[in-house]
Amino acid sequence: MNDSSVTSNTTDFGKLSYLIVDDFESFRLSMREMLRSFGAEKIESAAKASPAIQFCAYNHVDVVLCDFNLGDGKNGQHILEELRHKKLLKRSSIFLMITAETSKEMVMGAREYQPDAYLTKPINRAMLVKRLDSLVSQRAALLPINREIDRENYPEAISLCLKYLPTQPRYKTWLMKTLADLYYQVGDFSHALKIYQDVLHQRDLSWASLGHGRILLATGNVDEAAGTLTSLVEKHPDYMEAYDLLAEALEKKGKPVQAQRILEKAAELSPNALLRQKQLAGLAASNQDLSTASEAWKKTVSLGVHSIHDSSEHYLALGQSLSDLSEGDTSSDGYARADEALATLRRMERRFPEEENIKVRSRVVQSRVHAGQGNQMEANKALESVSEELANSETIDPELGIDYAKTLFRLDRDSEAKELLGTLSQRCADDPVLLKKIENLLDEPVGFQQKLKARGLNRDGIKAFESDNLDEAIKTFNEALTIVPDHAALNLNLCQVLMKKQQTTGDTQLLSQASKHLERLANLPEQHRQYRRLVSLRKKLQGMME
Question: Where is the PTM 4-aspartylphosphate found along the chain (predicted)?
Fold first, then answer.
């Protein structure tokens, strides 16, 4: 039997519409001829990503055959990512990734957006018809279910899955997985959990373990979820979704550093997943690991060049992290980071010129970069270029206002910064997230390295206090306050230690010292999370002094 005799006995390929995406015309023509040879008629082609995506926006396509490498610009992964994000591919459509490249990095990255299959070049007719026949047969058999899911009619999709389970044994695994996912979507966790448990009782399938972990997490069983997902990652180290969910579980357990390590491992295995790099960057930044954060933001920016998920926020976050790292560092490394921060911010201005406040946000951080390198003239010049946009504290965007205040502190314009933050705290009284950012900046209006040192001293002081080493605690808190003299918690911590020591020594001068630290917080706003503690210690100190 020769290649030309290979046909499908079950599939009518002539009823389907096809889109071939490849930058080589010869390959597009070859694929077109193969499709025509077994009855396909509605065949379109594109050499680049933009026309391919545009075609899908206005036309229903049953089968997309897309090469991974498309020359300069977007690749096949970017096309699949955008089609999924914009919901331009129905669930019943088939996306085949075609490539001559088989590197693990490429496969892992593309797989995250779930192509239906891979075809490796060179492709012959027998290979193509065999793969298509299987996929199209499944598509036809399960079309009613996928149609209801596309319509977001999940109850009907659930009913159809239950109806098909006894009549479509060939697709039992797909039906079980889809049914469990649908139950999760509608919040019926008990039915979803039963499916996952029943499947796992018969076979150790990674998707069932992942679903089991997701249900445990959603129902508050965080410890059990973390254990299940840890086991899944160990058994199936290439299953990327498990890393993301495990990191979420560890964060909920109050273990953000361990969560970061999990995301670092996932990013190492599959480095081309932009959203995971972004998640890693944010988590590392919250863990005060700015080196890791800046590298992850750098990767996010790089991956975003051709991605639907590209955002000015990525550039801004990278500029801010590089600014913090370079502040006060006049070595060659510090200068290089500062230079990279400025280049990133200028690129942001050029890439997103139509976005509101883009120039202002950029110049505020640029000013801070220059100030961190001791270049006050350029720092002032950057702010002056957007002075009108920053003039009204009653209308300024709160996030921009907080960043602007941070820069004002670096330029030794503390009174302006505090006045701006005071106005913002009144405007944002109902937003606890923004209020916390304002409080943190008021407490620690210093550079990143100084902030880390002060926080370390605060932890050491608390340990000394808990060990009843009061003299060491007083010494350590005083040292921290030389860095951040207006830090509310530090002043209250020291006040508490001084009051406790007075109770054991009877030295009234200690109460006078404690009173001075409370007086330093006289203007602490009522919205501040340390305000109630301040009032309580003030009353207690007054009673002790009387």
Answer: 67
Q: Where in the chain is the domain with CATH 1.25.40.10?
A: 451-545
Contact 308, 81 (CB under 8 A): yes
Q: What are phi and psi of 64, to 5 degrees?
A: -110, 125
Reported as type and span, the H/E element at residue 118 is strand 117-120
Which tokens go with 185? Answer: 């979507």
Tell me, what amino acid is at 169? P
Distance CA 356, CA 352 (A): 9
CATH 3.40.50.2300 location in the chain: 3-143
In three-state form (DSSP H/G/I as H, E/B as E, the rest C), the secondary structure along 397-430 is CHHHHHHHHHHHHHCCCHHHHHHHHHHHHHHCCC
Q: Which residue has the tokens 């306050």?
A: 481
| pLDDT tens for each residue of 137-176 | 999 999 999 999 999 999 999 999 999 999 999 999 999 9
Q: How far apart are CA 265 and CA 238, in angstroms?
A: 10
Q: Indicate the fold that domain 3-143 takes in CATH.
A: Rossmann fold (3.40.50)
Nearest to 505 by CA among 482, 527, 474: 474
The two counts, helices (H) then strands (E), for the chain are 26, 5
Model pLDDT for residues 362-414, shown as the tens digit of each residue: 999 999 999 999 999 999 999 999 999 999 989 999 999 999 999 999 999 99
What is the distance in angstroms between the CA of the first residue and the CA of the last residue of the chain?
A: 106
Q: Identify the CATH assignment for 451-545 out of 3.40.50.1970, 2.30.42.10, 2.70.98.10, 1.25.40.10.
A: 1.25.40.10
> How far, rounded to the nearest angstrom, does the alpha carbon of residue 138 sit from its chain's CA centroid?
34
Quick one: CA torsion of 363, 364, 367, 373, rounded to 10 degrees?
-120
